[in-house]
Structures are given as structure tokens and as C-alpha cells.
Design the sequence.
């Protein structure tokens, strides 16, 4: 199957090794792609694990899992990576009511001991 993150690779050669914990995403962009894919699959546990530990209290694994399940995640577009720890992206999905949605965000990531984590995001548009 093609990877939901729109990399052009298969899931097995793209995000699956991150989801199965065989390896860690090597860049903030790779982590962003794997997190989008974790919504599409869905994999709420991975989304929690890749959130900076000090920020996890603001999220809920079950809510993340449900958000992935109730929406159809159709496309990820990386707009730019202005620095190694920032990614601007557009995530396209169809919500539970069948309405097409766009999530445009500028996200901040942090590398801790060689592992990237999602820190926070600012909604755009």
C-alpha cells in the first residue's frame, strides 16, 4: 500500500518502521509525515509517544485514536521546513459528516537525545 503520508513510498518502506518502533524518524519532517500517517492508520499510541513528554498532559491517546478513526485522512502537503525543527504543512481529510476539511499548521519539534518529538502547533488560515 502507498504510504498515507504522500511520500510516494510504500507504507512498509516509509512510516511503518517508525510506527513499529524499529527506528526513529531522522528529521522533524519525517516525524511529521509519520504522525499524519498515524492519524490515517490510525495509531493513537504512536501519536502520544511522539509528543514531547512534558506536553503529553495536554493530549489524550484515546481522543487521538478516535480523531484518526472518525476522519478519512486523504493527503499531506509539506509547505516548507524553515528550520530543522519546524514544519509547515496542510493535512486534508474528510470529517465524520462527509465534509472536506483542511488543517493548515506550523509545527514546532524538538530533538531530545537523537529522537524527534512534536512540541506544539499554530493553526494557519
Sequence:
Amino acid at each position: 500500500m502507498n504510504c498515507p503520508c504522500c511520500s510516494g513510498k510504500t507504507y512498509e518502506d516509509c512510516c511503518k518502521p517508525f510506527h513499529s518502533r524499529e527506528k526513529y524518524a531522522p528529521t522533524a519532517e519525517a516525524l511529521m509525515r509519520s504522525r499524519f500517517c498515524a492519524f490515517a492508520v490510525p495509531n493513537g499510541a504512536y501519536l502520544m509517544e511522539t509528543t514531547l513528554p512534558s506536553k503529553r498532559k495536554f493530549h489524550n491517546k484515546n481522543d487521538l485514536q478516535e480523531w484518526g478513526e472518525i476522519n478519512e485522512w486523504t493527503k499531506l502537503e509539506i509547505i516548507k521546513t524553515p528550520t530543522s525543527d519546524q514544519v509547515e504543512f496542510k493535512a486534508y481529510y474528510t470529517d465524520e459528516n462527509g465534509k472536506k476539511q483542511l488543517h493548515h499548521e506550523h509545527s514546532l519539534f524538538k530533538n531530545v537525545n537523537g529522537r524527534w518529538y512534536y512540541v506544539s502547533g499554530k493553526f494557519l488560515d
User: Anything to note?
Assistant: The two ends are 32 Å apart (CA to CA). The mean pLDDT is 96. The chain is about 25% helix and 30% strand. The beta strands are 72-80, 86-94, 100-112, 115-123.
